[in-house]
Batch of 2 targets.
Target 1
Amino acid sequence: MEYLEKLGQQAKQAARELNCIGIKERNQGLLAAASLLLAESDNILAANREDIDRARQKGIKESLIDRLALTEERIEGMADGLRQVAGLPDPVGEITDMKTRPNGLQIGQMRVPLGVIGIIYESRPNVTADAFALCFKAGNAVILRGGSDALSSNLAIATVLQRALKTIGLPEHAIQLLTDVSHETAREFMRLNQYVDVLIPRGGAGLIRTVVENSTVPVIETGTGNCHIYVDKTADIAMAVDIIDNAKTQRLGTCNTCESLVIHEEIAKQVLPEIVKRLLSKHVEIRGDEATRKICAGAGMPETSIIPATEEDWGCEYLDAIISVKIVDSIEQAIAHINQYNTGHSEAIITQNYDAALRFQREIDAAAVYVNASTRFTDGEQFGLGAEIGISTQKLHARGPMGLKALTTTKYIIFGNGQIRP
Amino acid sequence: MEYLEKLGQQAKQAARELNCIGIKERNQGLLAAASLLLAESDNILAANREDIDRARQKGIKESLIDRLALTEERIEGMADGLRQVAGLPDPVGEITDMKTRPNGLQIGQMRVPLGVIGIIYESRPNVTADAFALCFKAGNAVILRGGSDALSSNLAIATVLQRALKTIGLPEHAIQLLTDVSHETAREFMRLNQYVDVLIPRGGAGLIRTVVENSTVPVIETGTGNCHIYVDKTADIAMAVDIIDNAKTQRLGTCNTCESLVIHEEIAKQVLPEIVKRLLSKHVEIRGDEATRKICAGAGMPETSIIPATEEDWGCEYLDAIISVKIVDSIEQAIAHINQYNTGHSEAIITQNYDAALRFQREIDAAAVYVNASTRFTDGEQFGLGAEIGISTQKLHARGPMGLKALTTTKYIIFGNGQIRP
C-alpha cells in the first residue's frame, strides 16, 4: 500500500536523523511542542468538538464521549506531560558491560533508540501527545493509529506537534498520524515490518487481541489484569481488609485493580466477614465458592450477600464493582490457582510469615508480585519510572510498567585493531 | 488441537516445577543427560541411519545429508555441549535495581525463566540437545519442532534426554518433541499463546519468514545477515585486505560472513586491486558497480575479473563465494547505503580516523558494529557469552548473539508493610 509505504519511509528517515540528534535538541522539541499545544488550544478544541458532534450523532455512550472530550485543562495536562518527559534523564547512549576479550577485542553494549514505533490506541486523544513524548524522548520516530472517533482531534494535535518540531529544525516526521483509519489499513500497518520495529497496542482486550493476532511486526502486549490478593493464614487482618478495599475500590476500571481473592481456610472465618462487610459497604458484588458462602452464612450474614461463583468467574477481569472469592487449604493451592487463572499482571500476598512471602514472590508467574501492599501500585510513576507507555504482560523485552528504557534497545559495539577469526 | 494442548499443558507444568528447582539440580540434569547420550549412542546412531536412508531414498542432496548425519564424534560433541552449559553461571535469581520508594515500598526486579520456549529448527539433530541444554539451564521447559527429515534422530535424542531427567527425579516434560511434523501442526504450534511464551526459529530465511508471518506467539527473529565492510579513506590497507579476506572466506555459509564491500573513492585505487587479487585467489566472484569496474580496469585487471553488480546484489545474502562492491564518495554515503540494505546483523568499518570510527558505530543500525575487526566474531562464544541459542536481528528483548540471559525475563518484586494507594 503506497500510503503506508510513504509513511514508513518518512518514519525511517526521521528515526535515522533522530539517532544523530542529542538530548538537548530532543528536549527542546518536547518543550516547543508543549508551548505550541497551548498556543493552539482553540484550534484543537474546535477539532475536538467536531469529533464529539459526530460521536453524538452516531449515538455513542456519554461515558465514551467523556473519554473523547478535551478541555483547556486536559490540553494543559498534555503540555505538562511533555514538559515532564523533557525533564527526565536521557535513556539512550549508555554503554554497559564493556569488556576486553583474550584477542584484544573490546566489546560492549550501547543503548540506542528502537527506531520506528507504531502505537495503536483507542479513543483518548491525549495519547497522541503522551505517546509522542515518550517515543521522541528516547530518540524514536512514531506512527500513531488512533481511533476513528477521535480523528479530528488527533489530527489537530499531531499537526501541532509536527509544526513545533519543524519550527526548530527537527524532523517533523518523527510523529505521523494514520489519517486513513480503515480496518484494512490498520491490518496493513500491522504487517509493515520493513519500516516499523515494534507495535504497542494501548486499549482494551479486544484491541490487544486484534493486534497480537494480525501483526507480523513484533508486539509488546500490554494489558489486561486479572489480579489476585491471597490472604495467607498468618495475615494481619486489619491490613488485609485495608489492602483489599484499596486494591478493589480505589479505581474500578484499571488493569491493576484486584478482581479475585484467595483466602487460606485457617484464617477465613476471622477475615472473611470483615472483608465482606467492608466491600459490601462500598457496593461491591461478591461472588464466592461454596466454602466462602458457608463461612459467611455461619457468621450470620444473609444468604444473598455472596453470589455463587462459577468457573468463569476465576478467569474474569470484571473492571467493575465485582470480586470473586476462593478458599484454599494451603499456600501451594493458592499459588497453583493464581498461576492457572492470572493474566501475568499483578498479584499480592498478605502474610506475616517470612517463608510464605518469599515463596509467593518466587513462584507466582506475573509481572509484579507484592507482599503486603495493594496491587494498585503497578504503574510507571508509582514505580519511579517517571512516565509510562503501558504495562507489559508479556515476558519478552519488558515486563510490567514500561518507562523510557522499554522504548530503547542495545547494539553491540566492538573496537578492534585488525582482529580476524582464526 | 488436542495433541498440542496436551504438550502445552505438560510444558507449562514442567516450567512451574523448574521454577522451584535450584541450579544444583538443573546442572545435575544436564550432566545426567550428557552421560545417557553417550551410553545410548548406538541407539541414536541407529535412529539416525533410518533418517539418512529415508533421505537418500527421497533423493536429498549429499550436502544436506551431511548436516543430518550423526557420528560418535558428533554425539560426543552434544554431550560436551551439555557439560559446558552445566559449567556456566546460573542466569536466574539475580535481583537488581532494588530501591525504596517514598512510601516505603521496596521495589526491585528478579531475573526469572521465560517459562515455555518453542524452538523450530531444520535438519541438524544436534540442535535437539543444544537447545534443550540452554533452555533447561535457564529454568525453562522447551517444546522442539525439528525438521521432518531428522524425526527419528530427534526422537531418539529427546527420549534419552527425558529419561535422563526422569531418572534423577526432574520433570521429564522439561523437553518435549513435536512428533507430528505436519505443516498444519506447526502452524497451530505458532499460535499456542496460552502455553508458549516465546518462539525461536533456527534455520534459513524461509523458515524464519514463515514463523514471523504465522506466529501469534512472540518471536525472536534470528538470522539472516547481509553484512558489509566499509573501507574508509584512512584505512590501513593491509588490515583491510586481511579482514575482508577473513570475513568473506573463513566460512562462506554463516550469517556473519561479509557479503558486500563499500569503499571510499579516495582509497579505492590503492586498496581495490589488493582486495580483488586476494579474493580472486580464494575463488570469490566479485560483483562491482561501474566505478569498481573502472578502477580495476585502470589497474590493468582483465575486464572479466569484476562482474557488473545489479540493484539486486546490494540486498543479497549470498552465503556463497560471491561478494558485491560499491564505491562511495563519503562516510555519509557509506552509512546511508549500509542502513538501507543491511539486515541488522553485523557491519564493520576499517579506518584509522577516530571520528569516523565513533560515527559509524553510532549511526549504523545493526546488532553488532565493528571497528577494525572481522564481522565473523558475531557469535556467542566469541563474545564471551559461553553459549548461544542464536543471533537476534530484531530489536526487542535481545539483539545480537543470545546467551542464557536472553532465555530469561524479569519480574518486579515488591515488599510492603500495608501500603495502599492514596
Note: The radius of gyration of chain A is 24 Å.
Target 2
Amino acid sequence: MALGKEWFTEVCEEHGSAFSLKVKQKLHEEQTEFQKIEVYDTTQFGKLMIIDGFTMVSTRDNFLYHEMMSHPVLYTHPAPNRVLIIGGGDCGTLKEVLKHPEVKLAQQVEIDERVTRLSEQYFPELCDSNNDPRAALHFVDGLKWVKDAEAGYYDVIIIDSTDPIGPAEGLFNEAFYRDCRKALGENGILVQQSESPLYHVKLIKAMRDAMGKAGFEQFRTLDFPQPLYPSGWWSATMASKQGVLDHFREEESQNKSFATLYYSSERHKVSMVEVPLLAAVLD
Amino acid sequence: MALGKEWFTEVCEEHGSAFSLKVKQKLHEEQTEFQKIEVYDTTQFGKLMIIDGFTMVSTRDNFLYHEMMSHPVLYTHPAPNRVLIIGGGDCGTLKEVLKHPEVKLAQQVEIDERVTRLSEQYFPELCDSNNDPRAALHFVDGLKWVKDAEAGYYDVIIIDSTDPIGPAEGLFNEAFYRDCRKALGENGILVQQSESPLYHVKLIKAMRDAMGKAGFEQFRTLDFPQPLYPSGWWSATMASKQGVLDHFREEESQNKSFATLYYSSERHKVSMVEVPLLAAVLD
C-alpha cells in the first residue's frame, strides 16, 4: 500500500528499506546555516526531529540510543571525570552523562545551536540537565575544538553525530581520530555512533581501521535496537588508547543510582563480545 | 515523501509506524484455505513472504528470529531430545533445531502446507534440513495436535506463529498453554514469539499471566533486533514447568559445532535478565 501525506518516511535507498511514522502535524521547519531541521508531532512516537530528511530523535525511542552512547563507555573508563560530546545537540546524551557522579565536566560541542534550541522547545525532557553546573554547552565546530584541545585533557569523547555525509563527514576519518587520541588521557576512550550492524558493516570496519591507524589500541562495537534508524538495529563503536576495554566497573554499574530502560550491567557485559555477524568481519 | 508502487509496506496502525521494502517483482500470490500468501523478490532483502499483509520472513534478516527462537531454549533445556514446533512453516526454526545433536525428533506442525511448499520454492536454504531423518513435517492444526499429545512426551515446544489474530489467535491463551504444559516432560520448556518489547508490553504481560495460570512456573522474555517486524525490535518468551530457566548449558553453547550470526553464549547469558523496560512491567 502507498502511505499518504500524513506519514513521514525516511528511505534508505542503498538497502531498499524505509521506515515511516504517522504524523499529526509539522511543528517547525527551518534552514539553518548548516542543515534543514524539521520537527513533527507524531501520533505514537511523540515529537520527531528530522535533519536533512533523516530521522534524528523521537520522544518514544531515544532512550535506547542515548543510554547506549553514554553508560557503556562511562562504566568502562575507570574514572570518567572529563567528558566531551561532539554533536549531540538534542542534549539527550549529555543528560545521561550527567547521571554519573564521577563526571566533573561534560562539554557538549554542537556546531548548530538551532538543534539545541529546538530540542529545548520540543524535547524539554532531554534538556532538563542543561543547567547542571558541570555542563558546558559550546556551539562551535567540533573538529576544530578537538584539534585545539589540551593534550590528555579528556577521559571520554562521545561522537554523537549525524551520518557520515554532510556536516559530520569529517568526524569519520583518521585525522580526526588522531586529534581525539591526543586530547584523551592515558585511559581515554572514544565512542562513536557507527550505523547499522546489518547495513553498514563496511563502514564499521573502515572506522575501526582508521581508528587503528590513528593509534587506538582496542575496539568494541556494541549493538542495540533503534526503531527510528535504518534497519531498526544500530551500533556504537568504542576505541581505547590502552587495553581498558576488557573490563568495566561492573559493581558500580549494578548499583547505579539512576534508572534505565535498556542499559543494564548484564547488557554491558554482553557488549564486551561482538555479535558474531560483526566479529566474523572485524577480526 | 510518498513511496511508489515498487515498495511493499506493512503499516502498524496501532503504533503509527510502517516498514517498507523495495521490491523488484511479485513472484507469487495465492489465497489458501487459511490465509493469503504473497512472495516478493526485493532489491536488497532477498525473497520476502507476506501472509495476510504482514511480513513473515525475508532471506536477509530471518537469521535473527530463527536463531533466537531455537538456540536459547535448546541450550537451556538439560537434554532436548524431542522438540515440537507449532507453526514455523518456513522451516527456518526446524533447520536451527536440527543443528543440535541432542535432538532425536523434531516435529513441525504447520496448519497450512502451502507455507512450507512455497518456502521450499523461494527459501530453499531454510528447507535444506527437511529430509533429516529426525525431522517430521505434519500439516494439521497445532491446537488439536497438542491437545491429543501424549502427556510428558516433549522436552521443548516452540510456538513459531503469526500474530495473535487470525489462524494463530488460539495459540495465545490459557487453554492452549495448559495443553502444552501437559505435553511437556518434567524439565519441559515452551517458547513463543511474543511481539515487540516496545509496542506490545501489555500482550507480553497477558501471555505470561496466562502461562502462569496454566501452571508454568518460570518465565523469561528475550529480546532481539528484527528489521522486518514492527519497531524492528522483537521478543520471544520462555516458560518452564520447573525452575530450569536460571541456568543454561553454557559450556556446550560456547563449544557449539555450528556457526551463528546473532546467537552466542554471551547473548544467551544476557537473555537470562530481561531488559529493564520489560522487567519493570513484568515483575
Note: Chain B has two domains: 7-58, 62-282.
